[in-house]
Amino acid sequence: PKELLKVKDLKQYFPIKGGLLGRTINHVKAVDGITFDVYEGETVSIVGESGCGKSTTGRAILRLDEPTAGEVEFDGEDLLALSKKDMRKKRKDLQVIFQDPYASINPRQTVRQILEEALEIQNVVPKNERAKKIADLMEVVGLGAHQADRFPHEFSGGQRQRIGIARALSVDPKLIIADEAVSALDVSIQAQVINLMKQLQRDFALTYLFISHDLGVVRHISDRVIVMYLGKIVEIGDKTSIFDNPHHPYTKALLSAIPVPDPDAQSERVLLEGDVPSPINPPQGCRFHTRCPFATERCRVEAPELRNIDGMKEGHMGACHFMEEIKNGTHQVE
Ligand code: SF4
Ligand code: MG
């Protein structure tokens, strides 16, 4: 399959103003040089604790916030070179679903009006076909055409998320970025919405970039997983590699925090201490060194590059100096 999205060395620094003159005195390095591809038809998840830069990455790709530096190529086109106007047109192909669909829809509009508006802005179908398209969309997301004239507040959280999905789907996108799209829902409703998303992916040839802090959900939906820490990618690989054979201590720590049925898997538990440091002045060297039980002097001075892991599948990469040594038990912490 071909790459649909290519992100290269993406950076997002937010200025911090201060002093009497309100000058920029520092930056929050929310995303600090990340590179990854998303292939057509796959689901790539970005996981990490809050503040790791995963939402910022999604917003930068969509240019909801203009990225500070880097490249974003979508379907062969340089997104960052588009004028604001052309970017708005491009949003037809890149849609987003947020955690709270209610926040991004007008509560005084019926679902029909919400969908009408989306169809009109992107001019997806001729006016006389809109009613049919809306009825189809309502069926496709499992709400039923008869519900189109109700207001958002008349629906449950899970149903509202289906409205959000219908709206995203209405413009026939290629990529959907889902930012904590099911995080606010009850577990059983989460499963229903994820199953719907998977079904729609098959039916409409969709590609997903799925942003979530919830590893259980990520395990369910992903083909590949990107783990971020303090604005950097620390590990990337297919789902099996990440969940069954994690190599970066941070990935292991994240996985250690979720209960596993297999007690053998617990032997590699890494417990996280302390909080995520500030992204204003991230730690020198490896950003994880302040919390990593394997840190050495080298980690405090030298930032590890994202690289292929010896003996692992092609494309399973990590950013830690000692992944192989930690795995085979020869790593020495001085
Ligand atoms: Fe830990 Fe060092 Fe690896 Fe960073 S480079 S994750 S501090 S062992
Ligand atoms: Mg977020």
Protein architecture, described:
It is built from eleven helices and twelve strands. It is an alpha/beta fold and 334 residues long. The chain has a domain at 250-334. The strands form two sheets. It has an eight-stranded mixed beta sheet with strand order 6-7-8-3-9-10-12-11, sandwiched between helices. Strands 2-1-4-5 form a four-stranded antiparallel beta sheet. A hairpin with a 2-residue loop joins strand 9 (224-229) and strand 10 (232-238). Helix 3 runs parallel beside helix 5, helix 4 packs across helix 5 and helix 5 (157-170) runs parallel beside helix 6. The longest helix is centred in the middle third of the chain and has 18 residues, at 187-204. The chain is globular and about 70 Å long. The N and C termini lie far apart (45 Å). Iron/sulfur cluster binds next to loops.
